[in-house]
Amino acid sequence: MNLKTLGVILCGVAIMQSCTSKNSDSTQASDSLKVNKIEKVAFGKLPDGTVADLYTLHNANGMEVKITNYGGTITSLTAPNKNGKYENVTLACDSLSGYLKGVPYFGALVGRYGNRIAKGKFTLDGKEYSLAQNNGVNALHGGKKGFDKVLWTATPIDGEEPQLKLNYTSADGEEGYPGKLEVEVVYTLQKDNSLKIDYKATTDKATVVNLTNHTYFNLTGDANKEILDHELTLQADKFVPVNETLIPTGELKAVAGTPFDFTTTHKIGERINDTKDIQIKYGKGYDHCWVFTDSGNQLKNVASVYEATSGRLMEVLTTEPAIQFYTGNFLDGSVIGKGGIPAKFRTGFCLETEHYPDSPNQPKFPTTVLKPGETYQTTTVYKFSSK
Ligand code: BGC
Predict the structure, then answer these.
(1) Domain with 276 in it: what CATH number?
(2) Best mutation site among 115, 116, 330 for ligand 1, i.e. most ligand atoms within 8 A of its Cβ?
(3) Which of 258, 270, 275, 293 has CB atoms 3.0–4.6 Å from 237's, for a disulfide?
(4) Partners of 109 in the beta sheet?
(5) Rg of the chain over CA atoms, in angstroms?
(6) Is residue 18 part of a domain?
(7) Is 17 within a domain?
(8) Which residues are catalytic?
(9) Residue among 367, 28, 325 at smallest CA distance from 210
(10) Residue of 109, 113, 138, 140 best suited for mutating to test ligand 1, as the one with most atoms within 8 Å of CB
(11) Which residues does 375 contact at the CB level (< 8 Å), separation at least 6?
(12) From ligand 1's centre to the CA of 346, what distance in Å?
């Protein structure tokens, strides 16, 4: 027997002796080929000294999403162009201090009530509640310190489809809303280059809830460029007309024959300045809520946006009944984004999946009331590819 053979035999005995641990080691080894580890770094300090973290999720294709637990904010999301190049396609800031200076909800989780509530007031079970009037006379996106400005508890979950679970407890009376609300949002970076967002909430008193994500997309990958040539399709045959303060009139209007008809594909810029349409005038472009033709609460394909120079395509799926399509009409260059690039007029668009604005004051709209014992649960998916 030569030394090599002896070595093989001894090794075999050793393997048999440690059979159990070997088996679990080899399982781990094959799993680790598939597991994408989430990286965590400090993102910066809040004024009270608390540290906010930044988590990076990757998938096997090379797509990467960065999320901070400050506001549950997406600070970068890369998507492939037609040559397979992954670039960030969102408006965002380089550092926490950028967000703390004040940004118009770049990438953030919005709540407890996304969108507007007229005059910051609503009545629930006979009691009137008052909210901060932080948008002219109206309440917008959860108030002065909405869910976009709080620190969430983050739990990273490594895997082939890595997840970041975010939890936040909104106290009874916070920002004027009744009920202690336990909120959980899970971001999942999926194998097919989609980002899934699952929202859940429970309450101990009746309250109103409308959660969304407020990412501004620019599929060119260049935040200097306008989004007017992006081609949009929306599976929505109605929209919610508003008054001059962007509060719903209470009616739903058919999109047919108006600049709001995206049931067939149109460039965003094609009719955006059609100010003889009073709704375009009020929104200073598009800043409205579209109601899906399919009103079911299953996950359904509701929107797609294609950008021809990069070849990037984004598809939106949601369980929600509606979507706020906002074309960055209030961006004026005063907020400085990544790489020192000012966020200029119409350089990003948002597709905020949600319930209709001002639902708490609109008896004809689907309810946004959440009662104790019920679970608020919605899912939205942003899927990226190129062609
Ligand atoms: C609103 C806009 C607002 C923007 C940033 C959007 O959801 O509809 O009117 O300017 O958020 O606050």
Answers:
(1) 2.70.98.10
(2) 330
(3) 293
(4) 213
(5) 23
(6) no
(7) no
(8) 214, 352
(9) 367
(10) 140
(11) 200, 201, 202
(12) 12
